[in-house]
Amino acid sequence: MSSAKSNGKVVLVSGINGYIASTIGLDLLKKGYTLRGTSRSAHSADALLKGAYKDYVDRIQMMSVPDMTIPGAFDEAVKGVVAVIHTASPIDFSLKSWDHFVPIAVAGAAGILLSAYKHAGPQLESFVLTSSVAAIVDPSKKPYDFTEADWNTYSVAKAKEQGEEAPSGLLYQASKTEAERAIWTFRDEYKTLAKPPFAISAVNPGVVVGPPVQPPPTASSLNETLRPTWAVFSGASTTIPPTIGSASYVDVRDVAAIHVWCAEHPTESNGQRYLMANGRGTPQAAADILRKAYPDRKEIPVGEPGSDYEADYGWPKGGQSFDSAKAKKALGREFVLYDQSILDTAKVFERYL
Fold first, then answer.
1. What is the pLDDT tens value at each position of the chain, 353 positions in all?
2. How far apart are the C-alpha atoms of 199 and 84, rounded to whole Å?
């Protein structure tokens, strides 16, 4: 039985078994919403239902969407919901060209938005897209303080220019940019005909860290942004792992909270982007934090303590930084600091030792 009273409202979260999405789902359930989650496979969310979501099974609806790029893939899933939170992305890093990589991401975002517009119903209030800091940051700009007004046109141009030679990381950045642009293009085009009767917003997180609500059965199944922390904590890596991107970190609990806030505040969030990056959190910083917290774990690599991050895990002077003031104002608080994220994650990881 549910441990929170139902509020009678249904929210759709795509890619529900994902790291960010599963945290969003738990937040929604705790608030009394009925959660409708989609995933590629009907059984891929079984672990959630038996684990983190077990107290809320009477308010959970799971639906299978095997291929989100097919037109109308979400037509049934959107019916009757008050909000759509689209976290799923059909990215396949084995694809090596613009034509095979970027249009797929665009089709996924545009497709669910069109389904919402046509089939959700008049009760729909919000559409929230999980975008990325990759859609904002221009790697060529240093020093620079990025805000929601910035767009990563650099990676789009470079990916087109390099064609078949474009690396998957560059294609990923371009895909996140173009997928988010697709929802704003949709909004602008429909304004001239009939303004979408629901709010549209985007969340642009950096490297997401922090404890998963439903840890996978083995550490080998951890998502990409958690693997460096596990590699350090477990001693699987004898050296400090490389940083992911610019190492601009944000806690998964903050990312989930702003998604829910956008869904619940359609008037304020409509037409807005929310950049979420709290500072520079590196694997070296994680190692330093974990060695102090777990002095008996001699397996944790030492590296060069304190060498590539600030003492407060903030932005280094003379480099790139990100202004997340808008998201912090919306939540009415500061974000979780890197050391707390790492320690809370390590507590979850103890099961794997």
1. 556 789 999 999 999 999 999 999 999 999 999 999 999 987 889 999 999 999 999 999 999 999 998 999 999 999 999 999 999 886 666 667 788 788 888 999 999 999 999 999 999 999 999 999 999 999 888 899 999 999 999 999 998 888 888 888 888 899 999 999 999 999 988 766 556 789 999 999 999 999 999 999 999 999 999 999 999 999 999 999 999 988 999 999 999 999 999 999 999 999 999 999 999 999 999 999 999 999 999 999 999 999 999 999 999 998 899 999 999 999 999 999 999 999 999 999 999 99
2. 10
Strand, coil or helix: 243: coil
170: nearest Cα among 181, 156, 150: 156
pTM for the structure as a whole = 0.96
Tokens of 73: 């893939």
Query: Is 342 within 8 Å of 289 (Cβ atoms)?
Result: yes
Neighbour tally for 116: CB within 10 Å: 26
In whole angstroms, what is the distance from residue 60 CA to residue 53 CA? 8
Structure tokens given for 330: 């919306």
Structure tokens at 114: 């069109």
Cβ 60 vs Cβ 53: under 8 Å: yes
Task: Tokens for 336, please give them.
Answer: 């979780």
SS3 per residue for 145-179: EECCCCCCHHHHHHHHHHHHHCCHHHHHHHHHHHH
- Copy the structure tokens of residue 99: 């034509």
Residue 188 makes CB contacts below 8 A (sequence gap 6+) with none
Nearest to 327 by CA among 199, 148, 152: 148
Task: Give the integer Cα–Cα distance in Å for 324 and 232.
Answer: 28
Q: Are 281 and 226 in contact (CB under 8 A)?
A: no
